[in-house]
Amino acid sequence: MTTLAVTIKASRAKLGITQSVLAGKLNMTAQAISNIELGKSGIGRKNFKQFGSALRLKPIVLVNAWLTDLRTQTLKDNGIRIAKVQ
């Protein structure tokens, strides 16, 4: 799972809302939220503010998670292995 996916799922769980409730707040489907939380799809850059508002997060929290994923993928694409910190 991506950092962005984990951040969104954890924030939703902390609020105690379902994927369906979050989807309703964002005018999306529950399946779209599921795909985002599984890391199968991302959120558009234009949607950081809406997700932040729905999850009671500052959009920069989501942007930082997205940037972490981007850096991680760039390193992997360049053949650099990333050790997991336990």
Give the secondary structure arrangement, pairings included.
Blueprint: H1 3-15, H2 19-26, H3 30-37, H4 48-55, H5 59-77
Helix pairs in contact: 1-5, 2-3, 4-5
CATH architecture: Orthogonal Bundle
CATH superfamily: lambda repressor-like DNA-binding domains
Low-confidence stretches: none
Count of individual helical segments: 5
Shape: elongated
State the separation between the terminal residues, measured CA to CA.
16 Å
- Biggest β-sheet, characterized? none
Structural class: mainly alpha
Report mean pLDDT, rounded to a whole number. 90
Q: How many strand elements?
A: 0
CATH fold assignment: 434 Repressor (Amino-terminal Domain)
As a percent range, the share of strand residues is under 5%
Helix content: 55-70%
**SSE order:** HHHHH
Task: State the main characteristics.
mainly alpha, 5 helices, 434 Repressor (Amino-terminal Domain), 86 residues
What this model shows, in words?
The protein has 5 helices and no strands. 16% of the residues are buried. The radius of gyration is 13 Å and the shape is elongated. The protein is mainly alpha-helical and 86 residues long. The protein has one domain (3-77): lambda repressor-like DNA-binding domains (434 Repressor (Amino-terminal Domain)), CATH 1.10.260. It has helices at residues 3-15, 19-26, 30-37, 48-55, 59-77.
